[in-house]
């Protein structure tokens, strides 16, 4: 937990500047975190304290507060190490304590960091540091003569003494904070250059990186997906990557700064220092600064990629649900048949079987009979068909069965279904069923309520990321966890039907309390009021405060228990009702009565206008699901194979993934097409996530078809 007393004012000011908010907003958020409040609770129920910050902004404050908390620990460790060496001055302490950037902090520490054996440490051990100091001071008119007194022991001659002194100077220069920061500034303006290795030239696995075999682009402008792809190729041994910094210019800059600081040296001393400068750049600084600047660029690319992933995940989790319908779900296949399950309106398994409507088995008549019988027997309302192999063919088959017009057919993404079916969660829910049954159940349930089902699956398995295995895994997990938590709490959860896997993402609950709630529900029956949560073992006052507003109880005696109005504000609703001369029950859901409420009349204590407006809005439509309704979709009938595509064709499609460079669209083939960001009908390069959303139904035009590489280029029409 973040301790407010440890969060220094300079950190608060920096966070505020980074995020474009006021320091008091950052300060208040950190105080709320310290008090045990969660991001959803703070952004929904403490708007007066935060100035109306969104959950994303509150999450960013929490992230940076954590970063600076770790930096403060690092500073303490560094100060302790330098103090033990007896080298900590007040000026150095002040510089370290004022650091806000980790690279600056590590630069200051570098000269004092315990070292492994280096050329410089060997030279120091030989007693050559005084000679190095003499050269550094620029006073030597005859370096060779000045070096002769050091020719003793392991030092064989004057040249060896001078070489050792230059090694010391090279390391000294490479550990100078100003030198390193100046070079970083230069490298950040240069180009990244990648070239194919011999392994890349001969390996078929390197073909996908062909665009980078001879590639050059300014590091400040390189798109995140390009950089991540190049770095992955380097890790696989297919590329060499460098920054094209000019060694001579860098050396001149280092030497000029040395002269400005030390004064211009004697010509002979200067020649020795310049030789040390060139060695320092080539041997020590260039590799180190290249690594640092590439790491900086990767960190930026990671953030961009993770933001894309987080937004895709948000859209996926908030996809339109069909709701509590009786569902037939089909995991399609050719040779092994189509696994069919039927589920009741609560998602419980009623039956399962396999049908073979397609070649090579092709028992089509039997399949038609079975499907028709199941639809009638279980009063099926919707059918979910997995979008993998044989998915489109199975949809075509179902549309020829002669089902009742009221039965709607939906294509559902299979991504992650196999992961769920083999997971501990899947085994726990269906211990007696095999993986094929579990996978089909997951397909059906994610049509009913994508949010409730997809929280059981690792987001990285849902097929909506961009280089998710290459980015910072800790940062990715933080972002994805916050996204899932945000989605769950923005929708609100039914307390009496939610699984423990869904409940654990509710503000203030977590895995242990979610299990305790389900156990209590199992032994005491359904909850009839939010207040009953206080009877759940280990669910204390703080947890109740954090979770109560996000949990719904349909049919509760108090209708506010099925709304987003927090129990701490029920008394305000009672006041509103009394002012209007009605009961609270009559007020809830009555838009005309709500329109008569003057928000300013009910401001009191910590309940300011933002909260009062939220209450009035919620009273108009209590417990409203913010998600849209699910819609059916059909692909073009005459497109079955890649060879059927012609440039200029206009086709319907479904957006399956959004990346920084474009959107992938399913047009009914095994290969998805790509709408490049430049083909989205927006002037200039569009940001795909701002133009399209995941699973959106679109109309596209075919721009290109590459049969050999199985690539389809598309343009967005609408």
Kindly describe this structure:
The protein has 718 residues and is an alpha/beta fold. Among the domains are: 4-96, RuvA domain 2-like (Arc Repressor Mutant, subunit A), CATH 1.10.10; 327-448, Nucleotidyltransferase, domain 5; 490-620, DNA polymerase, domain 1, CATH 1.10.150.310; 642-716, Nucleic acid-binding proteins (OB fold (Dihydrolipoamide Acetyltransferase, E2P)). It has 31 helices and 15 strands. The protein has a 5-stranded mixed beta sheet, sandwiched between helices. The chain has a 5-stranded mixed barrel with strand order 11-12-13-15-14. Strands 2-1-3 form a 3-stranded antiparallel beta sheet. Helix 1 (9-19) crosses helix 5 (55-84), helix 8 (119-125) packs across helix 11 (158-174) and helix 11 (158-174) packs parallel to helix 16. It is globular and about 105 Å long. The mean pLDDT is 93.
